[in-house]
Give the backbone structure.
Amino acid sequence: MTRNSTRRLATVGAGALSVAALLAAVPGSSTVFAGRPGGAEPVVAQAAKGKPRPDARHVVLAVHGGAGTALKRENTTPAQEKAYRDGLADALRAGGKVLDDGGTSVAAVEAAVRSLEDNPLFNAGKGAVFNEDAGHELDASIMRGSDLAAGAVAGVRNVRNPVSAARLVMEKTKHVLLAGEGADDFAARNGLQTVTQDYYWTEKRWQELLKAKGQQKGSGETLTQGTVGAVAVDAKRDLAAATSTGGMTNKMAGRVGDSPVVGAGTYAKNGTVAASATGAGEVFLRGAATATLSNLIEFGGANLAEAAYEVLVERLPELGGTGGVIALDAHGVFDAPHSSEGMLHGYLTEDGRTVTKIFADETPANS
């Protein structure tokens, strides 16, 4: 245990547990699989109808791997389960290391999302879906809660890690959102790694495109991962959020969803919430999902769980779409409501424990 670790974890929330080593780096830490025997995680049980409660407390970092059709136990091999849990845990480990070393919440969410972008299982970066022209157009955003600074890129085609390009926009320009070729060029000029389109190609996404176009009759369902994202709080109690996506399979070329739009797919404001959304992008745009969540807390007097539930379960489905959100406040209160069948996500607690949830029965839809 390091002295910095103790300081960081002790300041994030009242009643912090004794600091354990972060993840697997130091003996004694543990990874919890939600819903499994022996996994006593600090989860606050979902309340009875009409009184939402947070999923967990004392959280410093959370990630999601998309809402939509969740994994089914009966159709998932042990190797597949391990791959998805490891993907979420790796992202938590990457962001957690930043926090453990005294880094900012912005750096932590960037590191976590970069890990997910590099994992072909998720619809971002390496695993991005194909558009209608069999190409890849990627979107990402990041936001800092201390001063509402934000950066985003949309429709990039050659950036390996769009979330890092979004951070560059936030920190090195006077703008918030850059799109298309200009965004690609900006990222390259500032030293980010560039790739050719074939870097993003995966067999799974290609088969999903063919199925979407009706060229192939697949047996079984296509697993939709949607989007990836992260939220974090650091030792100064500053919040940050980031989101990244490849969009929708077979989307129109040039289509931009909610992920790079501040107040729709991503939002962070000290005093209210850090939130990253996933789901039906057009609906999240029309409903200004994450900004509305923050406003319900700031102006409506709702607590985090109540606000998240109202937006994700009560408001957005009325607009014709489903999805989910990971939401975190400066005191470590965390919630992950969703109206979709499931949502892949995980979180890291103050004592260095990771919790991952990938199966539908681990993340039942809120109702």
